[in-house]
Fold this protein.
Amino acid sequence: MYSRDLSVAPVAQLNEICDDLAATGKRVRVLWQEPDQLTFVARGREYRSEFHINPSDEIMYMIKGEMQLHIRTPEGAEKIVTIPEGGLNFTPSGMPHSPRFPPDAFALISERQRRPGEEDRFQWFCGNCDALLHQETFVVSDYTADPVSKAYANFFDSEPNRTCDACGHVTPAPDSM
């Protein structure tokens, strides 16, 4: 992140940031986190299975590789939107979405910083019967605290959270995150 110096307009070198994320194995680099703006580069979301419900609109740009953006319609149906390399997507606030892309792919995400008290929700659905399996809710005041990893740990580290009340199916934990 940069310091707020109004005499400088910061420039992010996306290729260098992607190379650094790949070399270090890190998944996210926050570029800007301002009162009305949050922008970050994400590497690989192959492990994601939850649907994120963001209180703000999101814009996703695929720097490298292709994303399979899983969304849930207002009727509850799951659909997949393919975002190709160089493609740009607008995801409105409140739309359950799950960005999935391989570890050698990179996305630039821009959204509004959360307002005080706003909640992000993370929902998992049963892979067997599609019932709501588990939900995590966070007030995200600092994105560098990595709320997605915390939500994943709360879900995958608990077999009761991964067990469907409707059909008894247990969602397996991924090999790595």
